[in-house]
Amino acid sequence: MRLIQDINKLRNSEIKVVIESRLREFSSFETKNDKEWFSELCFCLLTANSKASTAINIQNELGHKGFLNKNLEEIRETIKRNKHRFHNNKGSYIVDARNYKSIKKIIVSLNNPREWLVKNIKGLGYKEASHFLRNVGYFDYSILDRHIINLMADNGRIEKPKKINKKGYLEIEKEFRKIADEVKMSLGELDLYMWYLKTGKILK
């Protein structure tokens, strides 16, 4: 109950304006091209087990031109210079993802884009695939990072898991969807409110 009250309190604050602006940014990807979608895919590859703020810095530095054209060593050096974790693996994942440069064309043709992403994009799990889809305007997936999971556990909505496999992720997502139904929000919108409750920040 406390969680619902906190979300509704935020919804009636100035934070709502910031969150609605961010959601419009995500929705605008409907008119953006494959290059911009690929840049967002690379950003989400960088967020796995790392800080989103650092991934944003790398994305701003490289842009879609860098993600698409720089060689593996240049990408690894950029990641390392930004003090980001796992620069070798992350660099390799980004270069491998170039096999799917037409990512927008692929995603919009699919009935279950998250499953396709997890299966085909090396380095993407359910959390990162959901993150990417939310950031390009698909609001029906939950981004279950440690902040969201901890907040749900703190409020008695779930038991905090030690590790999360596919089955566990989908089970927690069911509970996340119940919260979304209670506050009448999409999963993508609820994520921003809950992430702010836990971190005091709104990133992407």
Feature tags:
204 residues; 68% helix; Endonuclease Iii, domain 2; 0% strand; mainly alpha; single chain; Endonuclease III, domain 1; 2 domains; globular
Notes on the protein architecture:
By secondary structure, the chain is mainly α. The protein is 68% helix and 0% strand. The chain is built from twelve helices and no strands. α2 crosses α12, α3 runs antiparallel to α6 and α10 crosses α12. The radius of gyration is 17 Å and the shape is globular. The two termini are 26 Å apart.
- Let me know the number of strands: 0
Query: Could you give the order of the helices and strands?
Result: HHHHHHHHHHHH
Helix coverage percent: 55-70%
List unreliable stretches of 5+ residues.
Answer: none
Note the beta-strand portion: under 5%
Q: Which geometry do the CA atoms define?
A: globular
The CATH homologous superfamily of the largest domain is named Hypothetical protein, domain 2
- How would you characterize the largest beta sheet? none
- Return the structural class: mainly alpha
Quote the average pLDDT.
96
For this structure, what is the CATH class of the largest domain? Mainly Alpha
CATH architecture of the largest domain: Orthogonal Bundle
C-alpha termini separation: 26 Å
Topology-level CATH name of the largest domain: Endonuclease III, domain 1
Number of helices: 12
The total tally of domains equals: 2
Radius of gyration: 17 Å
Give a quick rundown of the structure.
This protein is mostly helical and 204 residues long. Helices cover 68% and strands 0% of the residues.
